[in-house]
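Form 7-S
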Amino acid sequence: MTVKRKIIDINEELCDGCGQCVIACAEGAIKIIDGKAKVISDNLCDGLGACIGDCPQGALKIVERETDEFDEDAVEKHLEQQKKAGPMQDTLPCGCPSTQIQDFSKETTCLSANKPVSLASEESALSHWPVQIRLVPPNAPFLKGADLLVAADCVPIAYPTLHNDFLKGRAVMIGCPKFDDKESYVEKFAEIFKIARIKSITCLTMEVPCCSGLPGILIKAMEKAETTIPLKKVVISNRGKIIEG
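Output:
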């Protein structure tokens, strides 16, 4: 049955596919399809507009038009199907499977309470995907207000307890300051610092000289973004020990 009511309208020209509206929609009515946010079924959208404030591009608005009635039963069934399907997996505009944004951080209270203490330290502390600096979009939802861990590629190999000591509770980005494009890194982090409101940065590098450029990239990015973020530098030895920081 169709009625005239309020519903979310998405301007696809403004939408950059960041996925923040997907997270904000309690009914699961929005999905990233071909790099753009779309209302997958009108009867799932309550038209209240809770998602509007989470769109950094201003692509969402409420309109009033003839459409299907909001269906709470359909929402309940849809959310149950989403729950069975697993974590959010939305593809970024480039479409590469390695860039699928995934949020691993959502864990029910029940699951947390029942987690065996003896196994807790053996589990991954990674809360999202992707992690490579080149693949993470500046407006990735997991960067918003995050404590950021920036690590050279070799650090996770050398440092044995990275997950427990540094990764837990932080968004992580990794890259190689020797082989990767440093200027593109400066541009990428400057964009992140402008829009994500990063709370702090921990920078992990190896003791080898080529790693020393990574903190400099972050400092240049802060200068370019005209912001200051607390930056902690930690240097790891080739034998996996903290030798500075």
